[in-house]
Amino acid sequence: MNVPVPNNLEAFWMPFTANRQFKKAPRLLASASGMYYTTVEGRKLLDAAAGLWCVNAGHGRREIVEAVANQVGELDYAPAFQMGHPKAFELAARLTSMMPKPLDHVFFTNSGSESVETALKIALAYQRARGKGTKTRLIGRERGYHGVNFGGISVGGIPTNRKFFGSLLTGVDHMRHTHDIERNAFTRGQPEYGVEFADELERIIYLHDASNIAAVIVEPMSGSTGVLVPPKGYLERLREICTKHDILLIFDEVITGFGRLGTPFAVDYFGVVPDMVATAKGITNGVIPMGGVFCSSEIYDAFMTGPEHAIELFHGYTYSAHPVACAASMATLDIYAKEGLLTRGPELAQYFEDALHSLKGLPHVIDIRNIGLVGAIELRPIDGEPTKRAFSAFLSAYEKGVMMRTTGDIIALSPPLIVSKAEIDFLVSVIADVLKTLP
Ligand code: PLP
User: Fold this and answer.
1) For a disulfide at 331, which of 28, 67, 136, 210, Cβ 3.0-4.6 Å?
2) What pLDDT shows up at residue 5?
3) Would you say the CB of residue 111 lies under 6 angstroms from ligand 1?
């Protein structure tokens, strides 16, 4: 392949990247198809990360490409403030029909971070709208990742994402995370131990009083901090406590939405229905930026008061319900439905689980965990040099033909949902080779 390679890598300040290391030895992708990327040097890489947890239907899907091309030609842009276009309504109806009741409205955004901000703002405004304006506090969780905007990093629980950025939102508290490697190492699926971590919410509510708390936000499965699977009964208990104290429960399903757990959404997998669900990523197969926040009629209706000519919610983005994103999303949903990709759990999850757990006993491995089509291998950190071992594993896998993702000293795997058993075998054999040769 003859792909021109830029001769100046300086200008682009890369996000969440070791810029100096990258620019010395760049890893540049030229094209993608199905389960594979091709680098500018013409090397094939198995995509073990679905891009960045988003390309759930695999790369280069012709139907999405055509839908996007046609849409740009037909209606390139339409304002979503006081105007509309048919596909936005069609998509909203389709998406809400995939969600359990009562999540029957959706607010469109352009990313996971914007979905989180939107959900938090709706939660606060909802409490005011129903006359409970003292309910302003937000509760997040340690090791939670909710994107990078100020609301998201405030309720989020990743120290490095918070410490450089001055004052965050006030009135935020955090529950402890649910990772308990001492009791739960090498668990397949949901861990046995840790339901009691949910009781900490009762302690926090007691401290601040429910009359001051608007919402609790959690990822049903924390992806970005290393695939932390909720202990059995944990999410159910959070739901019970929130209901008991009249506090909204928000699930951040930016990763778990659209098939990652082998079910359409985590709400289906766990059978726990929150009051709002934040989504993005797989909503368009990663092709066009888009996100959506689902909420109940009860929340929506609380805003539908006052004079009819007046705007009910002072929030929205220039690109909310962008026509091209809507077209990409509808084509994506067609593929998901036609190929059964959102329900591949029963067919593939067991195979994926067995393959991953076959790595137990290899050098440096201190835990392996999995749920649906996502898994993690936690490595013992090098003394005094956290993250270095996993980063070396990432570079070595890249040399051996696999693009995977690492976070801290954890390898996280989330292949596109079209993955075959042979590709799972290849992926696991490459990781085994990597682990055997790591310093
Ligand atoms: N929330 C969760 C759970 C995520 O995993 C992510 C991204 O990985 C986000 C929010 C932020 O999404 P974005 O990068 O699209 O803003």
Assistant:
1) 67
2) 86
3) yes
Measured in angstroms, how far is the CA atom of residue 131 from the centroid of ligand 1? 31
Question: What's the CA gap between 416 and 280, in Å, rounded?
Answer: 15
Distance CA 391, CA 39 (A): 19
Ligand 1 pocket test, candidate residues 224, 228, 265, 317, most atoms within 8 A of CB: 224
Token digits of residue 26: 């760049």
* Structural domains for the chain: 19-61+342-437 (3.90.1150.10), 66-339 (3.40.640.10)
Residues facing residue 137 across a β-bridge? 213
Find the distance separating the first CA and the last CA of the chain, reported in whole Å. Answer: 34
CB atoms within 10 A of CB 368: 22
Task: Give the pLDDT band (50/70/90) at residue 400.
Answer: very high
For the stretch 89-116, pLDDT in tens is 999 999 999 999 999 999 999 999 999 9
Residue with tokens 């693009």: 403
Ligand 1 and 407: CB distance under 6 A: no
At residue 7 the predicted structure's pLDDT band, cuts being 50, 70 and 90, is confident
- In this model, does residue 323 exceed pLDDT 70? yes
| 90 strand-pairing partners | none
Coil, strand, or helix at residue 274? coil
Question: Which residue is associated with the tokens 């389960």?
Answer: 35
CA 292/CA 287 separation, integer angstroms: 15
Q: What's the pLDDT at 4? A: 79
Contact 284, 332 (CB under 8 A): yes
Q: How many angstroms separate the alpha carbon of residue 1 from the centre of ligand 1? A: 33
Mutating to test ligand 1, I would choose from 281, 284, 288, 405 the residue with most ligand atoms within 8 A of its C-beta, which is 281
Task: State the DSSP H helix or E strand holding residue 69, giving kind and residue range, or none if neither.
Answer: helix 62-74
Q: What is the pTM of this model?
A: 0.98
Question: Does 223 contact ligand 1 (Cβ within 6 A)?
Answer: yes
Pocket flag, ligand 1, residue 332 (CB < 6 Å)? no
CA distance 298 to 275: 9
Q: Is the pLDDT of residue 259 over 80?
A: yes
